[in-house]
Amino acid sequence: MKLIIYGTKTCKDCVDALEVLEQKNVRYLFLEFSDSIGNLKRFLKIRDTNPMFNPVKEKGGIGVPLFVFEDGTMTFELDDVLARIDAASE
Fold first, then answer.
1. What CATH number matches the domain at 3-89, 3.40.190.10, 3.50.50.60, 3.40.30.10, 3.40.1010.20?
2. What is the per-residue DSSP string for 67-83?
3. What's the angle, vertex CA 42, arms to CA 38 and CA 48, rounded to 5?
């Protein structure tokens, strides 16, 4: 399963999610955007065009970590990621 994570290592939720995924030996591509303008632009394009971010933006949030599966499904929830990984391994 291909998993892409947008985030930054200055975000506690991002760091916590990465630690859990590491402990579970989940392979992922982490697109850190605090040190990459290219990664930030890719994230902002998603954030600015996807209505799933509207409630996050209304509350002043950023919307990370953002988990993107190979089929394009996106979630902010680590529990969703773990459930999908568990289902794929059965």
1. 3.40.30.10
2. EEETTS-EES-HHHHHH
3. 135
Q: Is residue 67 exposed (0-12), middle (13-18) or buried (19+ Cβ within 10 Å)? A: buried
- Bridge partners, 5 (sequence order): 30, 67
From first to last of the 90 residues of the chain, give the pLDDT tens digit: 789 999 999 999 999 999 999 999 999 999 999 999 999 999 999 999 999 999 999 999 999 999 999 999 999 999 999 999 888 877
